[in-house]
């Protein structure tokens, strides 16, 4: 997609965020827009960062590593948002600033062990399977608290929040109900985990519902870069 269209799309997304936040008495500045840049070129990433987006989300490790190397001069935060295989944890621990998709203690322990001492603690979100879909990654809601307690013992990780991808639906009431459940789980954990400040939920199709229920970070791909081919 050409640079001017990406810039216009980003402006439109910011307007949607601002309108959604205003409707529920929130400040737009309290919601971070992440550009989901998987399958996108380094030039498209550069355009997004030049337009003011600092947070970049990637699902595919090898592609992300190549893209990060090609854009090493950018002031950006790189977030890994895809499923994590054990053989990928070292590269993720070494090259990302955030991980949104932690759902097992084994993976958390590997990320902790493999995070270089020269880097700050790795910021992580626990992915919760709020819709209990068999096809989705994520920890069941009832297992969140034990996983959080285990992660608090890992010094190279910093537990920052929850991430969720509810079952897709065009029903706004259903969208909000799912996000409200994630927000409730988030508030419950905050009572014992004071570092929790991030609620990563909402994408192009449902960001308004997510913001209405308290999202602090929305993950936007299609409405910034257009439909993807892969």
From TrEMBL:
The keyword rRNA processing does not apply. The modification N6-(pyridoxal phosphate)lysine is found at residue 38. Gene3D superfamilies: Alanine racemase (3.20.20.10). GO terms for molecular function: pyridoxal phosphate binding. InterPro entries: Ala_racemase_N, PLP-binding_barrel, PyrdxlP_homeostasis. Its cofactor is pyridoxal 5'-phosphate. Coiled coil: none annotated. Pfam families: Ala_racemase_N. Residues 15-227 form the Alanine racemase N-terminal domain. Keywords: Pyridoxal phosphate. The keyword Oxidoreductase does not apply. Pyridoxal 5'-phosphate (PLP)-binding protein, which is involved in PLP homeostasis. Belongs to the pyridoxal phosphate-binding protein YggS/PROSC family. This is Pyridoxal phosphate homeostasis protein. It comes from Chromatocurvus halotolerans. The lineage of its organism: Bacteria, Pseudomonadati, Pseudomonadota, Gammaproteobacteria, Cellvibrionales.
């Amino acid at each position: 997609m050409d640079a001017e269209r990406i810039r216009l799309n980003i402006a439109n997304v910011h307007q949607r965020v601002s309108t959604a936040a205003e409707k529920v008495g929130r400040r737009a500045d309290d919601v971070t827009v992440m550009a989901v840049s998987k399958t996108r070129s380094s030039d498209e990433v550069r355009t997004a960062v030049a337009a003011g987006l600092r947070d970049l989300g990637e699902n595919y490790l090898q592609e992300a590593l190549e893209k990060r190397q090609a854009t090493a001069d950018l002031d950006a935060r790189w977030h890994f948002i895809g499923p994590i295989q054990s053989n990928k944890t070292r590269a993720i621990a070494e090259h990302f600033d955030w991980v949104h998709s932690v759902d097992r203690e084994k993976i958390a322990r590997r990320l902790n062990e493999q995070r270089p001492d020269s880097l700050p603690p790795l910021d992580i979100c626990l992915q919760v399977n709020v819709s209990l879909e068999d096809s989705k990654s994520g920890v069941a809601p009832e297992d969140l608290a034990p996983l959080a307690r285990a992660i608090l013992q890992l010094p190279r990780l910093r537990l920052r929040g929850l991430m969720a991808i509810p079952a897709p639906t065009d029903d706004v009431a259903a969208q909000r109900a799912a996000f409200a459940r994630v927000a409730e789980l988030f508030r419950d954990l905050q009572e014992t985990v004071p570092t929790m400040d991030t609620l990563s939920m909402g994408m192009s199709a449902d960001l308004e519902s997510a913001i209405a229920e308290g999202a602090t970070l929305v993950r936007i791909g299609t409405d910034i870069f257009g439909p993807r081919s892969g």
